[in-house]
Automatic annotation (TrEMBL):
Keywords: Cell adhesion, Cell junction, Repeat
GO aspect biological process, one term: cell-cell adhesion
PROSITE patterns per record: ARM_REPEAT
Gene3D superfamilies: Leucine-rich Repeat Variant
Annotated compartments: Cell junction
InterPro entries: ARM-like, ARM-type_fold, Armadillo, Plakophilin/d_Catenin
Similarity comment text for this entry: Belongs to the beta-catenin family.
Sequence ranges of the ARM repeats: 80-117
Keyword Oxidoreductase: no
Entry annotated with the keyword Repeat: yes
The protein's name: CTND1 protein
Length: 182
């Protein structure tokens, strides 16, 4: 009751539906070529505002259970965009880290993405949490830490390998410290 329906784990690739007429207006926002543009911006840009906006757009396009959200989650994986987003977790700008975390959280709704994010992004998610032996500690806002916690939660639920990676990276100790600090 109340659980999200998992996406088909066997569907490693999803093809966008073929259009009979050119996309126009708001439809331009969720076409396959737009996914490539966002990934290119994430890989090429050094400007924090562009990185934040691109990750934020991906976060919004991947939100929810709408059909194109599912297509975009798959397209981002196919186009090797998950690693570009995960790399942003180490960025100096807190706004970029928060946007990347939110995008990864929504991307993790796709089971294959969840596996890949669990395998490759958990260490950088944990590094952004307060506490532990981290030097120098990032001083992130509560909103950003909550975003990271939500992403970790989404990634480790029903994902044993990600939960093991969380343990290996001292994530559980950090979670306990956060809980004790109130």
């Amino acid at each position: 009751e109340g659980k999200k329906l998992p996406e088909d784990p066997g569907a490693d690739t999803v093809d966008f539906p073929k259009r009979t007429t050119p996309a126009k207006g708001y439809e331009l926002l969720f076409q396959p070529e737009v996914v490539r543009i966002y990934i290119s911006l994430l890989k090429e840009s050094k400007t924090p505002a562009i990185l934040e906006a691109s990750a934020g757009a991906i976060q919004n396009l991947c939100a929810g259970s709408w059909t194109y959200g599912r297509y975009i989650r798959s397209a981002l994986r196919q186009e090797k965009g998950l690693s570009a987003i995960a790399d942003l977790l180490t960025h100096d700008s807190e706004h970029v880290v928060k946007a990347a975390s939110g995008a990864l959280r929504n991307l993790a709704v796709d089971l294959r993405n969840k596996e890949l994010i669990g395998k490759h992004a958990i260490p950088n998610l944990v590094k952004n949490l307060p506490g532990g032996q981290q030097t120098p500690a990032k001083n992130l806002s509560e909103d950003t830490v909550v975003s990271i916690l939500n992403t970790i939660n989404e990634v480790i639920v029903d994902n044993l390998e990600a939960a093991k990676k969380l343990r290996e990276t001292q994530g559980i100790e950090k979670l306990v410290l956060i809980n004790k600090s109130g």
